[in-house]
Design a protein that fits this description.
The structure is a single chain. It contains three helices and five strands, in the order H-H-E-E-H-E-E-E. By secondary structure, it is α+β, with helices and mostly antiparallel strands. It is elongated, with a radius of gyration of 21 Å. A hairpin with a 2-residue loop joins strand 1 and strand 2.
């Protein structure tokens, strides 16, 4: 009986601890805006239906959280970690009939520093990957 109570207490304490550390994705609107602003400085404003080579092209920006665990700022600060994002620029080119002729994707890592609190999120330009 005592052993099962101890196991139950340990499970509950672990559950509370893991919950406090934060499981899930974290997305900051301010960080997302800062990352989009940096992408706009590099690529210009996102667009839809721009005429190119006899067809049209769309360019979109997508910012997705890459920090899944832990998401608690206090835990990240203690560990010296930052929030991370995956920042994607996608160029989709369409033929005059509307079919997709080419998709070009450029991906960067975005970093939202936990310390200091007034630092803005930024792109890690060395992380650029194209496909």
């Amino acid at each position: 009986m005592k052993r099962s109570v101890m196991i139950w207490i340990i499970v509950v304490v672990l559950f509370i601890g893991v919950n406090w550390m934060g499981i899930g994705s974290y997305y900051s609107g301010a960080a997302g805006n800062a990352l989009v602003e940096e992408l706009e400085e590099i690529y210009g404003d996102a667009y839809t239906g721009k005429t190119v080579d006899g067809g049209t092209q769309d360019m979109t920006f997508v910012i997705e959280p890459a920090t899944f665990f832990p998401t608690n700022e206090s835990v990240l600060r203690m560990l010296g970690w930052d929030y991370h994002y995956t920042c994607t620029v996608t160029f989709t080119t369409y033929a005059p009939d509307g079919s997709v002729t080419q998709v070009r994707t450029i991906t960067y890592d975005g970093i939202d520093p936990v310390e200091p609190n007034d630092a803005r999120a930024y792109l890690d330009l060395d992380s650029k990957q194209e496909s």
